Amino acid sequence: MFLVQKANLSSHFRSTITKPPHIPKTYQLAARLFDENIILHLKTLDLAPDSSNISLSWLSAAVSFISTVHSEAEAQISNLISQADDYQALYMDYSLKVLDLCNLVSSAVHQLTDRRLLMNFSLCLLNFSDQMPQPEKLSKANDALARSINNTEDPAKEKGLRAKALIEELTVLLGNLPRGTSGGRDLIRRTLYAIGVLTVFVGSVLVTVLFGETDIVKLRVPAEFLWADSVNAVQARIFDLIRPKQNVLLEVDDLASQAVIVRDLIQVVVNGGDDAGGSRVRLEAGVKEMATGAKRFSDGIDALTNGVNGLFRTVLKIRNGRLDV
C-alpha cells in the first residue's frame, strides 16, 4: 500500500556549500518560532468539553498535525546542514520505526472498512423509492446489520503488540538524543525531540484506540519547551477520555446505535407487527438517520487513511533525502 519509488532528493543534512555560522540569537529565535508554531497547530486537536469519545476525525487531525510538524522540522534542520551529521543514524532509526507504525495503523484502519461494506450493503437493500423493500431484501439487510453490529473482531494481536513495542522503542530513542554543544546542534536536538515526543503521543493514542493496547507510554514534556503545557494538557485530556472505552470511536458508536434501531424496526415489519403504515414511516426515518451516520463514518475512515498515508509519504521523503547523500 505504501510502496513508492525513492524520491531523488538532495540531502537536508549535508552540503558542499560552506555557510557562515549563525549567532546564538538566531538559533534562539528559530527555536521560539518553531515552538510557537507547535502551539498553534495543537489547537487543531482541541476537544469539546462534553466529548465522551475519541472520533475518527480527531485521529485524522492528530496524524495531519504530526505530518505538519515533520515538514516544519525538515525546513528547520535544512538551515543547519553542516551541523546535522551527528544525528543522521538516530533519525534513520527513528524514521524507520515511524514508517513501520504507519503500516500497522493502516492495517487496523482497514479493518473498519469491513463494517463500512456491511452498512453500505444494508443501505442499498433498504432503498425506499416508491414502496417498502421486498421481504427478502429486508431479511438480507437485517442479517448484514446484525453482522455489522456484532463485528467485534479485534485487530491482529501480534500487530498490536508490535505497534506498542514501536512506541516504546521511539521513547528510548528520545532518551538517546545527544546534547548539543553549540547553538545549531542544540537546535537540531530540540527539533528532533519535538517530532519524536509528539509522534509518541499521537502514536500512543492510535495504538490504544485502534488496537486496544494498554499501558501505553505517556511522556511529560519538560518545561524548557514553550509548548510543554499545551501538549501535556491535551495528552492528559485524551488519555482520561479513552481509558474507560479503549476501542470505541465516536462515529462507530453512533452508527452502531442507529443500526440497532433499524434492525429492530426491520424485525417488526418482517414479523408483521404494528401497523404497516407506521412501521414504514419509522423504518424509513431510521434508515435516513443511519445513512447520515454511515456517511460520517465513511468520511472518517477516508480522512484517517489519507492522513496516515500522508505521514508515511512525508517521513519517507525526508528519509530518502538523507539516504541520497
Q: Point out poorly predicted stretches.
A: 1-23
SSE sequence, one letter per element? HHHHHHHHH
Tell me the overall shape.
Answer: elongated
Q: Please count the helical segments.
A: 9
The total beta strand count reads 0
Mean pLDDT: 83
- Helix-strand makeup class: mainly alpha
Number of domains: 1
| Amino- and carboxy-terminal Cα gap | 27 Å
- How much β-strand is present in the residues? under 5%
Radius of gyration: 24 Å
Share in helix: 55-70%
Biggest sheet character: none
Question: What does this 3D model show about the protein?
Answer:
The protein has helices at about 25-40, 55-80, 90-125, 135-150, 155-175, 185-210, 230-240, 250-270, 275-325. It is mainly alpha-helical. It has one domain (about 25-325). It is elongated, with a radius of gyration of 24 Å. The model is unreliable at about 1-25 (pLDDT under 50).
The gist of it:
The chain has 325 residues and is mainly alpha-helical. Helices cover 70% and strands 0% of the residues.
Which features characterize this protein?
single chain; 325 residues; mainly alpha; elongated
Write the layout of secondary structure elements.
Layout: H1 24-42, H2 56-78, H3 88-125, H4 135-149, H5 157-175, H6 183-211, H7 228-242, H8 250-270, H9 276-323
Helix pairs in contact: 1-2, 1-6, 2-6, 2-9, 3-4, 3-5, 3-6, 3-9, 4-8, 5-6, 6-7, 8-9
